[in-house]
């Protein structure tokens, strides 16, 4: 029972305090992949610890119900807890009801999470199939378009996004084709292919599901948003390595300016003026090149993190990831 309480206490503590630790380390975007690993490790650690704690509690209840009622009574009332209290039939019945309600709540949350995840995956696959059937093959952009799944949809709104599926689809609207030149289009496509190669859709689906099912846990709410942001930075880095930063910068500024209808101004004095005010809603589960925090991403591309800073942040994030992985096992060992 000690192990169960330790794991549950750790899950609550990490679920509340981990964002305060990880946020300052990942917000600058200096070390993207270790940042993703740290957030995912923290969320997995909390989930596993909570599940193990709940399972051990149930096991302890089955093995020795009187001992469990005594321990719970002592945890709440301390020395004021007497045998007359925890051996009372009414008290035992209350603990049993509480345990049953808690178990049902956990099972209901798991069911909701599974249903939400399945629906998100199925919706993405349906949209990918529909886009591949309705669109025409995107041709003429060279090596970056090698492979199936890149299509053009007739729409004046300048949008480019990818949707996971079997096969996945990269969708570019006719409005985006009219707006982007060849290097810019190659940069956008490289960005979207990086999303698919990194399985960022899966990460987004899993973390958004946790935030939706457990909205009161700060780690899940902050983690879902930060994972989405870091996924965009990771795709930016991959596209910049593939086609160069200038083309990616120009593509982001062009699409973001037309999509939002106002200029994007950075600290380096780069400003684009308003052109056509357009709103371009994306299908649920899609990852678009200009969907997240474009001004901050432009700043980062203009002034990329120095290697020494990236290494320092990466080391700190790696240590945090190791701690999130090891702490539940150490708690179990200590309790044993």
Can you describe what's shown?
The protein has about 325 residues and is mainly alpha-helical. Helix content is about 70%, strand content about 5%. It folds into two domains: about 120 residues, no CATH class; about 170 residues, no CATH class. The protein has a five-stranded mixed beta sheet, with helices on both faces. The radius of gyration is 25 Å and the shape is elongated. The protein starts with a helix and ends with a helix.
Secondary-structure element order, N to C: HHHHHEEEEHHHHHEHH
| Overall 3D shape | elongated
Number of strands: 5
Q: Biggest β-sheet, characterized?
A: 5 strands, mixed
Radius of gyration: 25 Å
Proportion of helical residues: over 70%
Strand order of the largest sheet: 1-2-4-3-5
Tell me the count of domains.
2
* Unreliable residue stretches: 141-148, 262-280
Structural class: mainly alpha
Beta content comes to 5-15%
Our count of helices gives: 12
Mean pLDDT: 81
Distance between the termini: 10 Å
């Amino acid at each position: 029972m000690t192990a169960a309480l330790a794991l549950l206490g750790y899950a609550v503590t990490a679920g509340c305090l981990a964002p305060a630790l990880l946020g300052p380390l990942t917000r600058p975007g200096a070390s993207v992949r270790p940042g993703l690993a740290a957030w995912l490790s923290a969320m997995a650690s909390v989930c596993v610890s909570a599940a193990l704690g709940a399972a051990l509690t149930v096991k302890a209840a089955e093995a020795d119900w009187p001992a469990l009622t005594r321990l719970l009574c002592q945890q709440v009332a301390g020395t004021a807890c007497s045998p007359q209290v925890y051996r009372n039939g009414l008290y035992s019945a209350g603990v049993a009801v509480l345990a049953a309600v808690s178990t049902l709540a956990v099972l209901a949350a798991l069911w909701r999470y599974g249903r939400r995840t399945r629906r998100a995956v199925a919706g993405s696959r349906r949209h990918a199939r529909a886009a591949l059937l309705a669109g025409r093959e995107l041709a003429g952009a060279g090596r970056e378009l090698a492979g199936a799944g890149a299509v053009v949809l007739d729409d004046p709104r300048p949008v480019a996004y990818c949707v996971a599926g079997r096969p996945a689809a990269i969708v570019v609207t006719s409005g985006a084709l009219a707006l982007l030149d060849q290097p810019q289009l190659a940069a956008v496509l490289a960005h979207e292919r990086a999303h698919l190669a990194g399985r960022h859709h899966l990460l987004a689906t899993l973390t958004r599901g946790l935030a939706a099912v457990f909205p009161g846990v700060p780690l899940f709410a902050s983690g879902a948003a930060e994972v989405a942001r870091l996924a965009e930075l990771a795709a930016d880095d991959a596209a910049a390595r593939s086609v160069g930063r200038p083309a990616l910068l120009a593509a982001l500024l062009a699409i973001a300016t037309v999509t939002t209808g106002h200029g994007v101004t950075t600290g380096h004095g780069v400003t684009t003026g308003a052109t056509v005010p357009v709103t371009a809603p994306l299908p649920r589960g899609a990852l678009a090149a200009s969907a997240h925090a474009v001004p901050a991403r432009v700043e980062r591309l203009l002034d990329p993190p120095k290697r020494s800073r990236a290494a320092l942040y990466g080391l700190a994030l790696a240590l945090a990831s190791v701690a999130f992985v090891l702490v539940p096992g150490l708690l179990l060992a200590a309790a044993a």
